[in-house]
Amino acid sequence: MIGIILRTASEARPFWQWVEKASAFEPASSIRALGYPPHLTLARYPAASPAILHEALVVFAKEKPVSLIFDRIGLFDVDPLVLWLSPRADQRLLDLHAKIHGIVDPALCDPHYRPGQWTPHLTIAMAIPANRREEALALAAGSFDPFSLVFDAVECVSWPPVRVVETTQLGG
């Protein structure tokens, strides 16, 4: 798998606090196991040439960092259960997503990451077994203090394991 990722280099303390809470339901923290900073996956491809994705990254060279406010927990109700933090609606984020798909044919992209199908999210746990589902749902339904993160780079990343292919710093 290869994708285009929006990531932060900030300490992201609130994010990691939520990872700790959510990973309590996993056998081991799936997010810490990645060894990768907090990120939003903008597009992912089962097979795509890094050269093609490079063209999409070039567009980001003139973009300013993206500041997002996260204000709730969401979930993908699959097995295993996935918990994630949801950013407030942000037109700029949607525009950046659209720019990628204006360069790289959306038909090459995983259907969940195509325009009109993509749910922006910051994953905090992706391996919650069925026997911990109710506890995870209770966490998702609990109170949430919004926080912001600034995303300052776009990367082309392959996985597994996570390997950075190319980085473009935002700062235009």
Explained architecture:
By secondary structure, the protein is α+β, with helices and mostly antiparallel strands. The chain has helices at 13-23, 30-34, 50-59, 91-103, 133-141; strands spanning 2-7, 39-45, 66-76, 81-87, 122-128, 147-151, 153-158, 163-169. A hairpin with a 4-residue loop joins β7 (153-158) and β8 (163-169). The protein is globular. The model has no long low-confidence stretch (mean pLDDT 95).
Structural key phrases:
172 residues, 5 helices, single chain, alpha+beta
Q: Termini distance? A: 29 Å
Average pLDDT works out at 95
Q: Provide the β-strand percentage band.
A: 25-35%
Order of helices and strands: EHHEHEEHEHEEE
Number of strands: 8
Structural class: alpha+beta
3D shape: globular
Radius of gyration using CA atoms only: 16 Å
Main sheet overview: 4 strands, antiparallel
- Specify the number of helices: 5
Task: Please provide a brief summary of the model.
This protein has 172 residues and is α+β, with helices and mostly antiparallel strands.
How do the strands and helices of this protein lay out in sequence?
Elements: E1 2-7, H1 13-23, H2 30-34, E2 39-45, H3 50-59, E3 66-76, E4 81-87, H4 91-103, E5 122-128, H5 133-141, E6 147-151, E7 153-158, E8 163-169
Antiparallel strand pairs: 1-2, 1-7, 3-4, 3-6, 4-5, 7-8
Helix pairs in contact: 3-4
